[in-house]
Amino acid sequence: MAVWSRGVCAALGLWFSGTALAGEHDMLALARLWSEVRATHPALADGRIDWDRALVAALPQVKGEDNQASLRAAAATLMAPLHDETLRIGAPTPHFVRWPADGDVLEWLPGDTALLHLHPGMRAGAAPFVLPARARRVILDLRPIAAVSYVSPDHLHGLLAQLIVQPLLPPAPRYRFSTGPRPQDLARWEGVLPGFMQMETQPLPPAPGARALPLAVIVNDAQPVPPAVLALQRMQGVRIVSEEGASRSRAGALQTVWLEQDLPVEFSAGQLVWPDGSAARWQADRRLPENRATGQGSPAVTAALALLARKPNRRPPIATPAMHAVRQDDAPYRDMRFPPPAWRQLAAIKLWATMDKYFPAKPLMDVSWDQALLDCLRRMDVVPDARAYGQALEAMAVQLDDSHVGTGSRALGWNERTHGVGVQLARIGGRIYVAGVTDPALEGSGSLRVGDEIISIDGEDAAARLLRLAGTVAASTEAGRWRKAMFEMTLAPANGVVKLVLAGADGKQRGVTVQPAVLDDRLPPRHALPVVSVEDGVAYVDLDRLQPGEVDAMFTAIKDSRALILDMRGYPNGTGRAIARRLNVNHATSFATSYQQLAMPYEAGHGAQLAYDDRLFPAPGPLYRGKVVMLIDEHTQSQAEHLALMVETATPVTFVGMPSAGANGDMREVVLPGNVHVWYSGLEVRHADGRRLQRLGVQPHVVAAPSVAGLRAGRDEVLERARQLLRQDQG
């Protein structure tokens, strides 16, 4: 399948092999930062910050060769609208407190003041330090003496439990998670909506014999202020001394995106929230410039002693509302039919970021999605008009290898895709044949017949035309790509004519001029059978035509049959669950597992998949217990495949035909500048036993496909094979 990615770029003039994008490493790095912040930063939850415009403002600073100074400046411009007090760009050389790793924890100061050295990086014992009874006041120095990736709260909590007389409830971490675009009609939503995820917090009970002593805590900008310390400040008026260098001290969860090996960007990963729902904010009682000394006489300890000598300042806590998640839809930017260069770059990055975070089948792609972005960005520098701009995005989306993928805009002609030649085509032996006629005018004229071979369309060789169009459509399987390309072959302007060269059974070629008709997405009838029929004890149901209100009557009509053929070579009308419930002799409670991508900060789980079972409920009427056969092929896609999974789980079924499309899972849509829409599969759906469906499809137990001779004879060979199978079983 990888050949098609290069083919589509070549067809549209988009392949720039060997041509590097200026500063492409920096462009990718900035795209990753924009994507991560867009997905998880709490400040973007309510939609008041225009994050698209933030990227557009930052992109011009990434120019020329990869350069850390310009990348750093671009990151600063990008992050500025967030007003994030925790933001740090770059890794300044840390200055740690000067205290031995194996030094004493306790240092006595005048007035029986216990200075406790709980510096991260010290070699602590297994048990928490026990505060001597002599202590009348306590200073707790929490500044690190070395770089540590994780600070266990156990020793701190063990000490604080000796200084509280009632349970202490630290603020709870609250993270924003996102799930990507969602349908406009929430009634059709499958999956979880984006929002906030609040974790539990662990209460800290007092230790036996605990005493509420005056306490001061020393922190600095090297480690976040522990939540328990914030709770003590709120509950008991604990004094905090904050020693700060170039950056302010911070509290709450943080996350980091590395733009380069030595260029991290650290920013907020969420909020800390009190039981009343307000966000935890803290304020230092004393701020000092950087000085990493500790012990008696050091500036930080001296300031802590001075605070302890005063009466506690019982100021009311700062009440800050917690962030609120508000639904946000992509702005279409309709006024930018052909967007300026930075907005075109934004469009490519936004498409990349959406699929990078939320497209569940990304691991199944044949090409690198990062490379697809770079190829599209190169094209964005030179596209001359709105149509070429849309084609560049279309070429990028094609590489997702998903039959649900489609790209539409006014410039791409989505308002013109209303007419075409009223036929269904089939590719047999590398040639293209008329498999059915949907236009009554064509059917009545006899100028075009089922089984005719298409030699050329408007003077272009049909095989060459099909190959060209196959490079411009996204598909999960090769058969699905041919199917979509053949549909594209039938499109035509409403006010024109289409000139066909055909060959009939005799091999003689003839020219036919066709007036395009209004498109009809229904498949042409394969035979004259009614929607529901019974012949020789074998029932037949055309699921492409059966309506929801007809299901009960259908089961009544077939109740005495010994076997049932369900024809799913099309698209159902929402009848799947009602049918599967009446077939559920296996008493299955679920028929598939759907997976949805969740983006969240690293410490909350980072990239995660939400898996949930699709349920089957008890039948409202008697079960059908006859043998069941289902007909499938490359037209069996999405809801049709979902129905196949239901039937597969409910009853022993034999699939006859060709593999289904391998594209199931609740379509999503991202809207890009210039009102360009890109659709894709928003969920990955697997069989009930965990087998993969995406890019494979439902596999037939018995392979059967139309032949040229069968088309010309008006036979439905797949249905015939199913009937033959059932006759063999009876015998």
From TrEMBL:
GO terms for biological process: proteolysis. The keyword Repressor does not apply. The keyword Signal applies. It comes from the Bacteria. Residues 538-703 form the Tail specific protease domain. One of its GO terms (molecular function) is serine-type peptidase activity. This is C-terminal processing protease CtpA/Prc. The lineage of its organism: Bacteria, Pseudomonadati, Pseudomonadota, Betaproteobacteria, Burkholderiales.
